[in-house]
Amino acid sequence: MGFHTSSRCVIISMTISTFILAAIFSCIALSHASPEYALTIVEDVGDDSNLEAVVENEEMQDPEDQEIFYPTREWQVVKPGQAVPAGLHIRLNLQTGSNEAKLLEEDNGRNHHKQVHKSTSVSDRYTAEELKEALAKFKEGNENVNPTEETDYKQEIKRRFKPIGELKKEFEQMNIKVETDFEIMTKIINRFNTSLSTVAEKVNALYDLEYYVHQVDNAQNLLKLGGLQLLINHLNSTEPLLVEHSAFVIGSALASNPKVQVEAYEAGALQKLLMVLAAEKPVSVKKKTLYALSSMLRQFPYAQQQFMKLGGLQILKDFFRGKNAESLYVRVVTLLYDLVMEKMLLYKDNNTQQIQEKQEQYKKIQLLEAIIEQGWCPIISDLLRLPENDAREKVLKSISLLMPSCRAEFQKDLNLQTILDSLRKEYEDLDADEKKSGEQDGYFNELLNLTNSVITNLNESLNGK
Ligand SMILES: *[C@@H]1O[C@H](CO)[C@@H](O)[C@H](O)[C@H]1NC(C)=O
Ligand SMILES: *[C@@H]1O[C@H](CO)[C@@H](O)[C@H](O)[C@H]1NC(C)=O
Ligand SMILES: *[C@@H]1O[C@H](CO)[C@@H](O)[C@H](O)[C@H]1NC(C)=O
Ligand SMILES: *[C@@H]1O[C@H](CO)[C@@H](O)[C@H](O)[C@H]1NC(C)=O
Ligand SMILES: *[C@@H]1O[C@H](CO)[C@@H](O)[C@H](O)[C@H]1NC(C)=O
């Protein structure tokens, strides 16, 4: 296994595969590559440690920035699959397992104009221990990516990389023992469950576990190993870090996994999640708990019904009275919007018996009605002030959804009209720029349409009165 450097284009990548702990340092020629995609220098970093800055990056990035790496003078992590422009200084950081890159410094002549290194085999350059170490840490750099981006990301990685069988062979040649995910997860859970571990070690185990449970089979392994119950028990831990990271693993294990959703529900997870959300806790804890709650509720009408009965909507509404909880607002609105849409979409086509049965279940969930009754309309429209476009997009969509019932209330809010007008101007300009650069139905065009439709919808009935 070596670097197959092509003069035209190289991407360094690294992945952990489904069944085995596997490292692949592979350079893939992009078929549509242009000459500016080239690797300049590769070096490993044994002890260097100016990397804290690159690991902690709390808020998610604009998804549009995912594909291309924007270099600065500081080392930054290159994500798998990212295209790296030419002329950069690139290194593999063995402490984090990430590739990092930065701009070359003009006057630091050492090494910089060295040619692309000859195809040295990775195994010549790093020991198996170092590789495993790097892999164990690989996950950490990605942990702030939001769940859907992360899933897309992993799928993208899988699509691009070699079949597992092939990887496995390469690893056997390197004498790295190939373990099954079940074995690995058993060890991780033991690391988490032993009283000998410090909180930091437990958190670390949870990071590792979170990676595995994205796989449907592994989420079920978590059940078999008694891990799910163990995590649910930790939701009332007095150590906020353990609550936070247990919720994170639970969220990922439940996502799109009905069997695990049901088990978690039966083990009392919903009540515990709501208790965490209702208590005084750091926002970071609430964020992950909200993630777990979303995973619990989506496509699970029975849990949604219980959520309503347990006063879950009110608990979420209380966030809006708290301080420093801004980063939760859009997440809450997104969850509610998605749940309302989930029901609505179901009523769009009712051909099969299966859908009709589902409709019966959803009939009992009067979420939209409760949202209106409990006075969410002004809370939601107020969020249009947020500066981020993706937040505004969610809010505009939610306002549209609520319009039939909340119109009168929206109309009374003169601020809302002012904000909508200024958004329209802003998006008209951005849309014009976007069109100039040759994009017809681009993102800002969509936002402009959305804004216009809210304005029209709001105004139409004014005129109709
Ligand atoms: C965790 O540890 C306790 C006590 O050591 C043990 O009884 C329990 O079975 C362990 N749980 C799991 C899921 O391994
Ligand atoms: C969490 O609550 C359960 C009962 O609901 C209790 O058995 C357990 O000891 C509690 N755990 C902690 C860490 O307080
Ligand atoms: C689906 O069924 C409901 C009544 O159960 C009906 O009101 C609705 O019009 C139907 N939708 C379609 C697309 O047939
Ligand atoms: C926005 O609306 C215009 C006019 O109705 C339409 O042609 C265009 O496709 C819409 N843009 C998007 C992104 O849907
Ligand atoms: C809304 O309707 C009023 C009254 O017809 C009109 O004066 C106003 O310009 C309209 N506003 C927008 C943004 O279309």
Helical content band: 55-70%
Number of strands: 6
Bound molecules: 2-acetamido-2-deoxy-beta-D-glucopyranose
The main sheet comes to: 4 strands, mixed
The number of helices is 22
Gyration radius, to the nearest Å? 25 Å
List segments where confidence is low: pLDDT < 50 over at least 5 consecutive residues.
1-66, 106-128, 130-147
Class inferred from helices and paired strands: mainly alpha
What's the SSE pattern?
A: EEEHEEEHHHHHHHHHHHHHHHHHHHHH
N- to C-terminal distance: 73 Å
What's the pLDDT, averaged over the residues?
75
Function: Required for protein translocation and folding in the endoplasmic reticulum (ER). Functions as a nucleotide exchange factor for the ER lumenal chaperone HSPA5.
Family: Belongs to the SIL1 family.
GO molecular function, one term: adenyl-nucleotide exchange factor activity
Protein name: Nucleotide exchange factor SIL1
What is this structure's SSE topology?
Layout: E1 12-13, E2 26-27, E3 41-45, H1 52-55, E4 76-78, E5 88-93, E6 98-103, H2 122-125, H3 128-138, H4 147-160, H5 164-173, H6 181-193, H7 199-213, H8 216-224, H9 227-233, H10 240-254, H11 258-266, H12 269-278, H13 283-297, H14 301-309, H15 312-318, H16 326-346, H17 353-363, H18 367-373, H19 377-382, H20 389-412, H21 414-436, H22 443-464
Parallel strand pairs: 3-5
Antiparallel strand pairs: 1-2, 4-6, 5-6
Helix pairs in contact: 6-7, 7-10, 10-13, 12-13, 13-16, 16-20, 20-22, 21-22
The protein binds 2-acetamido-2-deoxy-beta-D-glucopyranose (5 copies).
One 2-acetamido-2-deoxy-beta-D-glucopyranose binds at residues 189, 193, 225-227, 230.
Protein name: Nucleotide exchange factor SIL1
InterPro entries: ARM-like, ARM-type_fold, Hsp70_NEF-Inhibitors
Family: Belongs to the SIL1 family.
